[in-house]
Amino acid sequence: MLPTLRNLTMRTSRVAKDTSKLFDTADATAEATANAASSLPRRSTRSSLARFSYTASTAVTTKEEPLSDIEDALKPTPPSSSAKPTIARLTKRKRATTTTTTTSSPPSKIKAESPSSSSSDFSSPESSPDTKPKTKAKAKPTRALRKPARKTTLPDGSISVSPPTGWEEVYNVAFSMRLPGGAAANAAVDTMGCERLAAPTASVKDRRFHTLVALMLSSQTKDTVNAEAMKRLQRELPAAREGGEVGLTLENMLAVDEGVLNELIGKVGFHNNKTKYLKQTAVILRDKFNSDIPPTIEGLMSLPGVGPKMAHLCMSAENGWNRVEGIGVDVHVHRITNLWGWQNPPSKTPEETRLALQSWLPKDKWKEINWLLVGLGQAVCLPVGRKCGDCELGLRGLCKAADRKKVNEGRKRREVKVEMEMGVEVGVEEEGDVKMETKMESVKKEVVKEEEGEEVKVKKEVVDEVDVEMKAVRPARSARNPKRSE
């Protein structure tokens, strides 16, 4: 029994000792944590620096809300055996400080700067009496919207076509460019167009045949080359019989050999095919149209190598039938009207362009538009390398396809030209004044020279007399002393 009690006593004392050691360690840890928290350096904040504010001239009273610093939020927690001491984090409230200044003027409240202040706290320039209200910028003038030709279905089912917006202005400006002195004046078509290549000495019937042949040779060929080929035919096409007249006639065309004809027109494009077409056309004209050209569009288009463009141009030419029944649309008319945006969507073929133009363009311009746009396309609006800087349509902003860089360069050149012309006029006036001043100066110089000339003349005469006397004396001295003279 005794040994058992002794052992129990010993066990109890060991547990007590271990427990006391554990509490001692916990107390030491808590004291160390408290000392570490109290020894942290205090951060300088606005509230801590407020006592250094300058208050010499005015008495400032500051009212602040009692806010705790971030350091005050650090509270040590009792340590535990399983977790480290934690720090409670509090969110910092926004500081709003209001200061009241006492001066001679009425008291006013000034809101101090705070992190949450924004630009809206300050008075706007419009509210201050010193600042003037800003004037609104002038709106740029908007360009008139240009629309292409539009189709409208009427209540009765018919279709009405409205012309493009502002087409008359564009047409008139282009027409002025084709007149003498314009950028597109003196184009090749003006002197070497197909309707101008007929021989003036030929008969009326032969002139119509010349116009048809010129149109058949003109496809894919420049006007200069076409004109040269026509001249050769009119001069060198062999006569059909001996003693006959040499030149371009239907009878000679029927009799000429294809090889000779091919050689005469060898410079035009596709001359081999055109040689065949000319020979076939001559036979058709002889057999079906009484050795004359067909008097209708359908009859002209029935000839080999003749399309709608050639048919309408031949029909409306002065050396043709001189009747306007349609528009002769070639590549220039087709291309330029699409550049102007007159067809929407853009037409794909010259025939589509012809039908579109004839639906709204006044008939009195059907013949003129070909001459207008062909010359413009040859001189200014070239297929490659358009001269937008020389085009009035581009300079005035009427062409939607104009190259802006070239237009700006053209405007600068025009401004320089105007300045130079104005400078020349001013220079002429100044030159007149200079001439008058120069003339007056020259008269004065002549008078001075004349006066100086008289003085010089008198002095010269006096000097000459002295020289004569000296010369007369010197021989006498030499005669007295011959050795000295030697």
From TrEMBL:
CDD domains: ENDO3c. GO terms for molecular function: class I DNA-(apurinic or apyrimidinic site) endonuclease activity; DNA binding; oxidized pyrimidine nucleobase lesion DNA N-glycosylase activity. Its EC number is 3.2.2.-, 4.2.99.18. GO terms for biological process: base-excision repair, AP site formation; nucleotide-excision repair. SUPFAM superfamilies: DNA-glycosylase. Residues 217-379 form the HhH-GPD domain. Residues 34-161 are annotated as: Disordered. One of its GO terms (cellular component) is nucleus. It is found in: Nucleus; Mitochondrion. Residues 134-150 have a biased composition (Basic residues). Residues 34-51, 80-89, 97-130 have a biased composition (Low complexity). Keywords: DNA damage, DNA repair, Glycosidase, Hydrolase, Lyase, Mitochondrion, Nucleus. Bifunctional DNA N-glycosylase with associated apurinic/apyrimidinic (AP) lyase function that catalyzes the first step in base excision repair (BER), the primary repair pathway for the repair of oxidative DNA damage. The DNA N-glycosylase activity releases the damaged DNA base from DNA by cleaving the N-glycosidic bond, leaving an AP site. The AP lyase activity cleaves the phosphodiester bond 3' to the AP site by a beta-elimination. Primarily recognizes and repairs oxidative base damage of pyrimidines. Belongs to the Nth/MutY family. This is Endonuclease III homolog.
